[in-house]
Amino acid sequence: MTRLLILGSANADHVMNLEHLPNPGQTLMGQGYRLEHGGKGANQAVAAARLSREDTRVDFICHLGQDAIGQAMAQAWQQDGITPDGITYTDLQPTGTAMIFVADTGENIIGVSAGANATLTPEALEPHLELIAKADYLLLQLETPAVTVLNALEHAKANGVTTILNPAPAMVIGKDLFRLVDVITPNETEAEAITGIEVTDEQSAKLAAQMLHQFGPKIVIITLGKRGALLSTKDQCALIPGVEVKALDTVAAGDTFNGALMVALGEGKSIEQAVAFAHRAAAISVTRAGAQRSIPYRHELAEHE
Questions:
Q1: Are 139 and 110 in contact (CB under 8 A)?
Q2: Does residue 91 carry a catalytic annotation?
Q3: CA 303 to CA 301: how far, in whole Å?
Q4: CA distances (Å), 249 to each of 15, 38, 73, 93, 296, in order?
Q5: Which residue in 290, 274, 282, 294 sits closest to 254, CA to CA?
Q6: If you write DSSP's letter for every residue of 23-61 in order, what string do you get?
Q7: At the N or C end, where does the chain have fewer CB atoms within 10 A?
Q8: How far is residue 40's CA from residue 255's CA, in Å, rounded to a whole number?
Q9: What's the pLDDT at 305?
Q10: What is the pLDDT of residue 44?
Q11: CA–CA separation, 246 vs 288, rounded Å?
Q12: What is the largest CA-CA distance in the chain?
């Protein structure tokens, strides 16, 4: 059995649809509102669970508040096949919250209050170290404390676990993390935040990838939206085109990509095949509104082949 582990955030997403994204100081009338389950970690865990085969175990290490939305999230995740072993409830903070504005074009802007996610400290991680040691792949993001991410990476590498870092949201972080990362998956903004290189096209993406390799990761995947993703390894550096669709909502596209990528690698697919698999999953997600409810199931990818 392949064991996939995600460590990261879980948020209650408050989503408002607008004709266009607001400018600073501008008030716009919304075209709709909904409350959804989100958070980069949770989205990626749901993607991994929905896209995995039956012989795969998916664990998710996260902190939720002692509130109704946290309990509802955990129940929904278990229905998707995520085991409950890594889920912890805390009375120190409410479940994390995200405020999301989505334009008619599918573009979005997001503000996040960490809430319970901030309580996932290195001390709180200790009861879950065995989950990390037993995993085949560990996927992380940056919506939980950076020191916890570092500790998880250190424990994973000490136990031979393949590590994937989605360095989102974009921020300047200590370079010590990168020496522990096997696969890194920034988008253009995140790649620039780490390297200082503005990524505007394939050539600038290649320059950023070269610098990222110098920090440690053997595989660099810079996602470029509808243009696809730049894949860089020691043997190649090439653009892998995405799947052309009409985007409705891009909120969970990157998270779907990352969850799908880990699933494909866990099944022994080549890195090129894994990126193509992830593109197909992300393409389906952007044709639907919402975060976790937009993430496809495995059979849907087969239907779109």
A1: no
A2: no
A3: 5
A4: 11, 14, 21, 29, 14
A5: 282
A6: PTT-----SEEEEEEE-HHHHHHHHHHHHS-TTEEEEEE
A7: C
A8: 6
A9: 52
A10: 98
A11: 10
A12: 53
Structure-block tokens of residue 56:
């795969």
E-strand spans in 11-153? 11-18, 32-38, 56-65, 82-83, 87-90, 96-103, 108-113, 137-140
Residues of the chain with pLDDT under 50: none
Contacts with 294 (C-beta within 8 Å, 6 or more apart), sequence order: 249, 251, 252, 256, 285, 286, 287, 288
Q: What is the pLDDT of residue 303?
A: 62
Residue pair 45/164 in contact by the 8 Å Cβ criterion:
no
Bridge partners, 64 (sequence order):
89
Contact 140, 164 (CB under 8 A): yes
Catalytic residue among 59, 182, 249, 255: 255
Structure tokens at 198: 């503005």
Spell out the residues 6+ positions from residue 175 whose beta carbon is closer than 8 angstroms to its own: 215
**Residue 75: count of CB within 10 angstroms of its CB:** 10
Residue 173: predicted pLDDT? 83
